[in-house]
Amino acid sequence: MNIQQLIDDIAADVRPYLAQAAPADYIPALAGEDPQQFAMAVATLDGQLYATGHSDKRFSIQSISKAFMLARVLAVYGDALWQRVGKEPSGNPFNSLVQLEYEQGVPRNPFINAGALVVTDIALSQIGDSSSALRDFLREESAQPALDFDYVIAASESEHGHRNAALAHFMKSCGNLHNNVDQVLAHYFRACSLRMSVTELARAGLFLANHGASPVSGVQRLTRSQAKQINAIMLTCGTYDAAGEFAYRVGLPCKSGVGGGILAVLPGKMSIAVWSPGLDSRGNSLASLEALDRFTTRSGESVF
Amino acid sequence: MNIQQLIDDIAADVRPYLAQAAPADYIPALAGEDPQQFAMAVATLDGQLYATGHSDKRFSIQSISKAFMLARVLAVYGDALWQRVGKEPSGNPFNSLVQLEYEQGVPRNPFINAGALVVTDIALSQIGDSSSALRDFLREESAQPALDFDYVIAASESEHGHRNAALAHFMKSCGNLHNNVDQVLAHYFRACSLRMSVTELARAGLFLANHGASPVSGVQRLTRSQAKQINAIMLTCGTYDAAGEFAYRVGLPCKSGVGGGILAVLPGKMSIAVWSPGLDSRGNSLASLEALDRFTTRSGESVF
Amino acid sequence: MNIQQLIDDIAADVRPYLAQAAPADYIPALAGEDPQQFAMAVATLDGQLYATGHSDKRFSIQSISKAFMLARVLAVYGDALWQRVGKEPSGNPFNSLVQLEYEQGVPRNPFINAGALVVTDIALSQIGDSSSALRDFLREESAQPALDFDYVIAASESEHGHRNAALAHFMKSCGNLHNNVDQVLAHYFRACSLRMSVTELARAGLFLANHGASPVSGVQRLTRSQAKQINAIMLTCGTYDAAGEFAYRVGLPCKSGVGGGILAVLPGKMSIAVWSPGLDSRGNSLASLEALDRFTTRSGESVF
Amino acid sequence: MNIQQLIDDIAADVRPYLAQAAPADYIPALAGEDPQQFAMAVATLDGQLYATGHSDKRFSIQSISKAFMLARVLAVYGDALWQRVGKEPSGNPFNSLVQLEYEQGVPRNPFINAGALVVTDIALSQIGDSSSALRDFLREESAQPALDFDYVIAASESEHGHRNAALAHFMKSCGNLHNNVDQVLAHYFRACSLRMSVTELARAGLFLANHGASPVSGVQRLTRSQAKQINAIMLTCGTYDAAGEFAYRVGLPCKSGVGGGILAVLPGKMSIAVWSPGLDSRGNSLASLEALDRFTTRSGESVF
């Protein structure tokens, strides 16, 4: 398989999709991204890096941060985590209060917003300044000490974040947030505001492809079982209400963000990052999904 | 890896779990199974078959039949299928009417009961006598011409099947069942009543592990993409409301049945069948889940 | 108050509404009614009867039958009834399965379809041929021995009644229907198919306005408390998902049917029946609601 | 009817219920009330006042304030109100987020918490300092210039009010709160914290019994239609998830509060206030409901 050729072809093939989708419009900083942008990068376990498109452009990783934050908390806190958040896919949108109320404040999984708020809350209790710790982790794993938050985006999210505030207050009323609501929200929004490029993101995902051992930092970030677990949750819950569609078409563990990025993992082989700001109706990057579908279909590679 | 040794060890290790779970009690024919029974079989792509426990005892495969029926319908009817049933995991129990009503009679996925009824309905329209066709298919793929329905169980299910009748009538009222309600239910219950042993089941699952090409019958049952798709849906939706738990612990596409059986697939390598009648609170075989967890954890093999 | 003048004026005033609504279209026999028809009748406790419009035309009373069936069952079976059905208003449409599932097969109130099926089931157990008994009761209370079922409508409802069959099978699966599902449905549809005119209906409602004692038959049909109870349930639950709107605008206990009829009760004074086939978006007769609103607003009479 | 004798008898009869229920326990200030307290007062349109029990003891009126606030806003803002809140009974608990999400931030009625927050928001926009205005209104209508907030209770509610904060933030995210979330919550909690005795409360309710014209202040507080409307909403929505039970047993428009008080209205005749701190499972005062049931059953008086 000639990976460079493959992703260059894909970049050309998905071009028609760029005009069919618009960026997230709920905050100005995201809405302003040019939807014609596209980038894809593949980092292999043997140290190769392939990239195409706007691969050096940093974008807001948004919910992709949830996969890394979960990995950090699972490493530190272990299975005790699962007493505060479930690991089952949700049949409802990522910011729904309905299921949360029926399940009395215990979110269905760590990748819906409520679940990520609980993970952030645990991180605050266990690690302290959780958003800074996540930033430092990603700096190490992408070998890019310059990575940082986008404070404008974080502030904008906070200002428009009444839905997330509703989730947090509800869980606080159920006793499933231990720290101050405003503090949890601030760290959550800050972590989501991190900016990375697809090459940085693909590299940072390698420890998930390598059964927990990072070839970048040389650190064993997770046990083999924990890496399996994070990948399993990415596959079943990582792409909002479209996990079934992604599993069916792409067949890889993925985590997407409303900034238009998607991180995908092929265990034992490689980590893939794609970015294009235009979103489909379920909040995933339209062109990125098309690109990943083509990548696994043409290469014949997937977990299935 | 010494597979025979591994599954013999596992059979010994899960013995304490046998006493902790009771068989399904909603129909007498299932309730009467001795919960002390356990069997496990592994069929590899290179033609080996390993088995332990009550591996020749035939049991009611129940919902495992849904995976095979889906494979048949996908092969015949293709992606048109997805206009009548979704492919997203459900946040609700397998026989819930709630989600079905919110989604106006289009079931979330083909493995909840409502979805399987739609698949059966399509099979009736496309294939004719769908339950007999499924029996014949499984006779070929297990190389066991004696496989058959358990008419006592089918009749008993039918008699106690008011919940499934409610699902079917509701979908009929939405226009999403085309055949007669009673006929659809009869074929559904008959397919579920098929009796197979773990060795027969493991062998019958090989075409899913071999990207669609059956090493038993020599027939290409599905395209490579379709095999990926079936495995993806098994992983995200195959174990009732516990798909996340299975992905997390086992990390393989699985399909379970209330008869206590589970079929698991390791693409490119093997097919695994486990059986023990005692069920956990979510309707999956307790000892079979424990066995599969140990199998992937000790062997280090999983899709992740 | 000159009642005849008032209802004649109202008949003129609501004429523009007749063209704005269409009859129920789910069965041909109802869909064929001319939407230009309107009738209103008032029967007072002192024996007067006032009528305007097509007041001798018999129409399908449909769900209005539920109020009479409930009165019969409450008289015979007493408060034991409330162990099988609630008496709280429902926040969901009249034929919803959602709430029924959450409340494990115990319908919210006797006027949603599921609740009326339970009441019919109790009537079958307590009274025997429940639909014939209801017909005979209404013949006596309207002093019209010729009242009868419309067997064409009953058959048509049965043929298209998959939604009601779903409700019945679901409750059967929960153990809250004791008789055969098909038998319950048959009696339910037959009772709904009764044809009455507004004058007959207004007269038949007098026992509810007279604290249980019928001035027509001379029989004490309900105790004073039971009459209060039926009126209370009509006010809180009698008009599908619009009980609040009716209470707010009309301020009387009402029971409506998809045939376009509404029965209203002013306790201590009178019984009012209105009919016009065109329905609003919630399944109540548009012109009949307008007429009742005008009647209570102009007369200053209501329970509030 | 000898009202004094009747309520004295009732006070004796409900004594056994006092020990069967506990005060609201979610804030210390309410939890500390002695559950053995009971009081009942009746104010008639002809100026009589009857009282029994701890009738001078002021208690926290809590949600009873919602009826008065609604009356104030309806008088000022009129039917435009109903574009921001519904008037249908809710099938869900008073503080549920589920229905609110399905109905996209428009609360079902003004007496569930979400609805009362919207009414408070409108009051803030239309009247300014809404809680002080309500206090002044109640001072006039009870002829008690000393009535005031309980700032300790208001502060305690605010501290434990994460559930209400969740509702408010959710509606803010839907655009259905116009003022600052914290400001709306502060006025809401302050209005709920008002302390009144049953005699003061019964007197203050007289304008609702007198078709809008207050015999206390001599002011026409509502039009006849508006008084009917408020009473209608009290009857269908005024007692949390037990409106059907109240209508069935009591047959009067009622508004209850978790402080243990209930205000009931018999249009054209009288206003009744009852108080006892112990609550039943649905949040209404257990002994107060028993007392109102006996009052209407023995007197034969109710709206039905």
How would you portray this structure in words?
Chain A is built from 15 helices and seven strands. The first copy, chain A, is 48% helix and 10% strand. A five-stranded antiparallel β-sheet of chain A has the order 2-1-7-6-5, sandwiched between helices. A two-stranded antiparallel ribbon of chain A has the order 3-4. Chain A has one domain (3-299): Beta-lactamase (3-Layer(aba) Sandwich), CATH 3.40.710. The longest helix of chain A has 15 residues, at 113-127. With 304 residues, chain A is an alpha+beta fold. The A-B interface holds A 86-92, 99, 108-109, 224-225, 227-229, 231-233, 235-237, 241-245, 247-248, 251, 253, 267, 296-297, 300, 302-304 and B 86-92, 99, 108-109, 224-225, 227-229, 231-233, 235-237, 241-245, 247-248, 251, 253, 267, 296-297, 300, 302-304.
Write the layout of secondary structure elements.
The structure is a homotetramer of 304-residue chains.
Chain A: H1 3-13, H2 15-18, H3 28-31, E1 39-44, E2 49-53, E3 59-60, H4 64-77, H5 98-102, H6 113-127, H7 130-142, H8 151-159, H9 162-173, H10 181-192, E4 195-196, H11 198-204, H12 206-209, H13 224-237, H14 243-249, E5 254-256, E6 261-266, E7 270-275, H15 286-299
Antiparallel strand pairs in A: 1-2, 1-7, 3-4, 5-6, 6-7
Task: Summarize this structure briefly.
The structure is a homotetramer of 304-residue chains. Chain A has 304 residues and is of the alpha+beta class.
